[in-house]
Amino acid sequence: MGNELLLVLVIGATLISIGYAIILLTKIRKAKVNHPKIKEISSYIKEGTFAFLKKEYTIILFFIIGIAILLTALGFIPALKNAEGIGYKAAICFLVGAGFSGLTGFLGMLSGIKSNGLTAEAADTGGMGKSLKAAFTGGAVVGLSVVGFGLLGLSGLFYLFYKISGSLQVAAQVVVGYGLGASLVALFARVGGGIYTKAADVGADLVGKVESGIPEDDPRNPAVIADNVGDNVGDIAGMGSDLTESYAGSIISAISIGVAGIVIGGELFTDLAAIFPLLIAGIGVLAAVISVIIIRLKEWKNPQRTLRIATYIAALIVLAGSLVLSLVFLKSVNPFFAVAAGIIVGIFIGQIAEFYTSDTSKSVKEIAHQSQTGHATNIIAGFGIGMKSTALTIIVLMLGVALAFIFNGMYGIGLAAVGMLSTVGITVSVDAYGPIADNAGGIAEMAHLDPHVREVTNKLDSVGNTTAAIGKGFCIGSATLTSLALFVAYAHAADLEILVNGELTTVINIINPLTIIGLLLGAMLPYLFSSLTINSVGKAANKMIEEVRRQFSDDPGIMLGTSKPDYAKCVDISTSAALREMILPGLIAVLSPIAIGFLFGAEALGGLLVGSLASASMLAVFMANAGGAWDNAKKLIESGLYGGKNSEAHKAAVTGDTVGDPFKDTAGPAMDILIKLMSIISLIIAPVLIEVTPLFLSLFQ
Amino acid sequence: MGNELLLVLVIGATLISIGYAIILLTKIRKAKVNHPKIKEISSYIKEGTFAFLKKEYTIILFFIIGIAILLTALGFIPALKNAEGIGYKAAICFLVGAGFSGLTGFLGMLSGIKSNGLTAEAADTGGMGKSLKAAFTGGAVVGLSVVGFGLLGLSGLFYLFYKISGSLQVAAQVVVGYGLGASLVALFARVGGGIYTKAADVGADLVGKVESGIPEDDPRNPAVIADNVGDNVGDIAGMGSDLTESYAGSIISAISIGVAGIVIGGELFTDLAAIFPLLIAGIGVLAAVISVIIIRLKEWKNPQRTLRIATYIAALIVLAGSLVLSLVFLKSVNPFFAVAAGIIVGIFIGQIAEFYTSDTSKSVKEIAHQSQTGHATNIIAGFGIGMKSTALTIIVLMLGVALAFIFNGMYGIGLAAVGMLSTVGITVSVDAYGPIADNAGGIAEMAHLDPHVREVTNKLDSVGNTTAAIGKGFCIGSATLTSLALFVAYAHAADLEILVNGELTTVINIINPLTIIGLLLGAMLPYLFSSLTINSVGKAANKMIEEVRRQFSDDPGIMLGTSKPDYAKCVDISTSAALREMILPGLIAVLSPIAIGFLFGAEALGGLLVGSLASASMLAVFMANAGGAWDNAKKLIESGLYGGKNSEAHKAAVTGDTVGDPFKDTAGPAMDILIKLMSIISLIIAPVLIEVTPLFLSLFQ
Question: Do A391 and B528 touch (CB under 8 A)?
């Protein structure tokens, strides 16, 4: 088959996914919510969410336009005319990437907000089966949009610029801009969303649960709507754009490595090696569609089992499909091994996260046990467990990398990343289900629905906590693998090739102090970045606490239930804090690689990338699992262990949970973005770095 | 001058230092303590300390003998007969290194324990001047022993094997064993001591201060003696052996790089480049002696100023001396720049630690402020500040590396490390002063001395907290720099030299998946290591808490002050916990580089080293500064801020302090040891790795 036909087929697959997502979204939007209270609360959440999105997108727009102009302008510099990642073509890709990523987030929000209410009402009127279906369908729209739009933009642009230039090499360079666009939106969505959601959550919890003794999601708490909005913007939009970025990044890196030419079984592949990652992704898109259709065929009763089956169906389809594609197009089983390694590692990493954070795990029980001796021992225990969990995670990831490499060299690392992310359509669907179920529970509480409703939503939500832990593991694992692949692509693009024993080899030498300096600075950045985001949450939560206290003391009617709290004020606090605080981390992520690259050169920038990759992935795993374990330890005690709610052990466990909140939902996930964004930017400036002398070295010449 | 004469001069300098240390120690041991209660308490502490040391040294002895036999036996393998770091000669160096390191620890203990009591009594009878002098003299014995014995062993063995073999190259390889010996003892002293001290401290605090409401250092608390013993074994012996290891490691690495030949100003130096680091160290030893003599000439009233002057005197002497040595022997000012960069970076890093942790700092005030909203916000604030503090620390360190490299290439990095550590004699003296002052205060409390005594000791102690923060920064900075230099030496030793563009270059290529795998595993190890040590503290502290509670409930007379608690039982718990728990981290540190080296090869091992170096130094800085800041935030509140003692803010601040304890005194300092030990082991096995095919690769061939 010709290259173009293959690309058209991939585009066709994405259109199927998008079409199905739109059908489902239309169904959701047409469905009627009858309960007046649910309607009212949903409207508050909707209002708050779109107020945030509007402000956020406005800020992003400025950045986007600025960078697009910069990319276009730089293209006019004569020395850069061969750097296809820069110039008006790359700027177009960049705009499409940002636009599609933003669109996906918007559609996800539309689906999520409406599905919250539908899930709550279905739990009331239809029981577990209907409620589960509503939540799953809401999540599926997010998942199918992510892969549909994500791959449509990428494959469409790749096709377009291949048509125009007649060269896959040129097309491969140009579409890096698409990855940058997706990355930039992801940065703001993840960091802004992460700060938003935790400022609201921590603020609501500390005054509500701890000081005033009212339950979670109590409508008397002024911060409760902000908390629910936060679940949407942080957990749905943030997570979705994070994985969109990984998705695009993994495919882009595999294409970049592939176009350089891959030898498999003595035969040199260039065209097919470049297109193969897109084919795998195309199979993945179809797999997600098929999996969602199958699950929606009947009403399931067991949420855990349902979500697991959905994941396995998709994984099996991709495995089978990639085996066929591998044998047919690359005439060897080896590429299949790399894709399979990626898929399996992705599943394992999720399982490891569950192993350390599920409420039946030894680790979580240990934290609960240590809560009896107070706040400090609870914190120390969670800290230790989060750190320990890095070991198994990294070992599994490294085994995957080793296997992928053994059979396919560097190309294998790119393929493993693509493989892992090929199932992302269903992963996001399952992941987005979590916050929908969580919010449905919140709405049920706020609308004073019958206790049996809360029972259903609680069951849905507790599975959501597990899927969230698995999803977080998956986000980190895929971000690490994607960044690794992008890093390799960067080294190729930066022309770091030297004659080693007579053979041209890509080399970034660590026994070069500039590389070491880059590496150590890179290892430091995730710490700086985390401290900024964690402090932002702390500051914003403090403001939230003061506002809630003020409302309680100004209007005693709120606590009595006779007057309505001012939800909008709390939404405002979270919104402006999130938007203000995401700027500085964003600038650091964007400017660090540029500064190091031009100051110390391409090799030092390589050091920076690998240093930050190593440091950020450890911190991300540590924070996600410590946070998850603290959360479930608290839940375990709330279920009656060691004195249950309001015991001393419970108070200590709440401390751990509160500390874990910004860890697992703000700083941790932001690590994923940091390393991917820095890698993408490096890949783009790589051809420029070849042309200039590093400033630091020119000082001493 | 001939090489031998130069070495003899260095040996002479060490003998002066040792002689002076012995004179001071004799004075201390002869001095009489008159207060019967001080005598009694001192005897408990002494008993506990030596019980621990005896058991610890017995365990270490087994390891030492085992490794010495292994080193000797491996030397008989024909393929390894040119690997001088292995064989009976290296085994001898290893034994001397371990022995001297142990001896230094023992002498430090002798001095520390007696000085505790002397300082307390001097505060009673002589006031600030006499008390400060007693504490400083006690610390000086530790500092002078560290540099005296540390350098005597190294230069003596270097001289011996140079005499025997006639080759500086051979001598340079053989003495790596000396570094291994020092490292191994440091591992046990730091990890074991760190677990000991914090198990006792956390246990004593949680039951004593929090549950029973009795003050710190109250003699009714059964864990109080264990706590005091811990200060000696952790803060004096542990810190001393940590810096002894850095000291030996930095000199060894500089020699290793130097013997390969250094071109300065067009001239090739080999002999002098190898001996030069020893000369700098020799100047440093003399500088420490001179500084101690000057300080002891008169009675000082202001402890802060005194300690600062001591440090500056030593630094200035080394700066002047190294300028002269640089010009005379290496005929250029360039090596001086590297040494100076090391010294200045060392001072700056200490200042940065103080900047983030002193009780007047913005950071500490912020933590105190956040304590008002509870335990969680206190923890989050400390966490953020610890992470932020990595930025400035690493940037300063990297600037130093860049400058040292620019003027002297790789040799400069070794010299910078030697420069930084050349002032270690006085750094250790100042650092050891801290726990002595702290314990003097404890003794004053326990012996119910007059409040004015406690006033003096409190003043001494508060300065001790600052010097501890500075000292910790110095330990980390020097460990990072030393490991970096050892890493470079390793790459040379592992023959990782390839023809790059026709020139022989040492290369560890990160664009090699095996290197990346090594690097990511390396980045993970510090997390695993920290989780083990932190969990050990948690477990041991729990046992301690149970024991203290048991004693309180079994014998109500303890709280009434009518019966004496069973101190020995608590000492036992800490002792056996520390010794049991240090084995596993120890094995991980020793076996990881060996496993990765033989499994994935020398390049992957290089990746492991640099990955762990990057990861561990960030964690170490983060933990040390977070811990220090939490500690002082608590003190700030205790001084009356936000409600003072027993307020809600205070309780939250105590949580932060308790969490910070294992951070700053167990896991954090253990990071230093981990990276140095792994580097030294790698340097030793490097020549072996050249001879074998990595297991993993041979599987697929």
Answer: yes
CA distance B454 to chain A (A): 28
ipTM exceeding the 0.95 mark: no
Verify whether the Cβ–Cβ distance B654 to A376 is below 8 Å.
yes
Q: Do B542 and A377 touch (CB under 8 A)?
A: yes
Q: Mutating which of A212, A257, A377, A532 best tests the B interface, going by the most B Cβ atoms within 10 A?
A: A377
* C-beta atoms of A513 and B622 within 8 A: no
**Contact flag A531-B387 (C-beta cutoff 8 Å):** yes
Residues in contact with B245: Cβ distance below 8 Å, sequence separation at least 6, in sequence order: B101, B179, B182, B183, B185, B186, B673, B676, B677
- Where does residue B162 rank: exposed (0-12), middle (13-18), buried (19+ CB within 10 A)? buried
Chain B residues with CB inside 8 Å of A509's CB?
505, 507-510
| Side-chain half-sphere exposure of A317, counting CA atoms within 13 A | 24
Contacts of A459 (CB under 8 A, 6+ apart): A128, A303
Q: Which residue from A minimizes the CA distance to B549?
A: A373
Residue B213 has pLDDT above 80, yes or no: no
Residue pLDDT, tens place only, B126-136: 888 899 999 99
Most A CBs within 10 A among B406, B510, B654, hence the mutation to make, goes to B510
In A166-270, where does DSSP find H-type helix? 168-174, 176-204, 224-230, 239-259
Q: Is the pLDDT of residue B530 over 90?
A: yes
Question: Domain spans of chain B?
Answer: 3-31+50-699
Alpha helices in B75-222 (DSSP H): 88-125, 127-165, 168-174, 176-204
pTM reported for the whole predicted model? 0.92
Cα A142 from Cα A139, distance rounded (Å)? 5
Mean pLDDT score across all residues of chain B? 90
- Rounded to whole angstroms, the Cα distance separating A650 from A641 reads 9
Residue A697 pLDDT > 80:
no
Q: Which amino acid is at B284?
A: G
B136 closest CA partner among B260, B10, B306, B283: B306
B389, closest residue in chain A (CA to CA): A528
Q: Which of A410, A521, A654 sits opposite B394 (nearest CB)?
A: A521
State how far the Cα of A324 lies from the Cα of A328, in Å rounded to an integer.
6
Contacts of residue A276, Cβ cutoff 8 Å, sequence gap at least 6: A254, A258, A325, A326, A329, A330, A335, A415
What tokens appear for A74 in the block? 């730089």
pLDDT confidence band for A700 (50 / 70 / 90): low
CB-CB contact of B575 with B200 (8 Å): no
State pLDDT tens for residues B233-283: 888 888 888 889 989 999 999 999 898 877 777 788 888 999 999 999 999
Tens digits of per-residue pLDDT, A598-650?
999 999 999 999 999 999 999 999 999 999 999 999 989 988 889 888 899 99
Verify whether the Cβ–Cβ distance A615 to B519 is below 8 Å: no
- C-alpha to C-alpha distance for A253 and A490, rounded to whole angstroms: 9
Mean pLDDT of B160-183: 92
In a mutational test of the A interface, the residue from B198, B337, B377 whose CB has the highest number of chain A CBs within 10 Å is B377
Q: Six-digit token pair at B37?
A: 């209660």
Residue B97 pLDDT greater than 90, yes or no = yes
Q: What pLDDT is stored for residue A93 in this prediction? A: 96
CA–CA distance, A378 with B307 (Å, rounded to integer): 38
Q: Do A659 and B380 touch (CB under 8 A)?
A: yes
Give the chain B residue nearest A699 (alpha carbons): B406
Please judge whether A384 and B535 are an interchain contact, meaning their C-beta atoms are less than 8 angstroms apart: yes
Q: Mind listing the pLDDT tens digit for each residue in A151-205?
A: 999 999 999 999 999 899 999 999 999 999 999 999 888 888 888 888 888 888 8
Asked whether the beta carbons of residue B614 and residue A500 sit closer than 8 angstroms, the reply is no
Candidate from B517, B606, B610 with C-beta closest to A398? B517
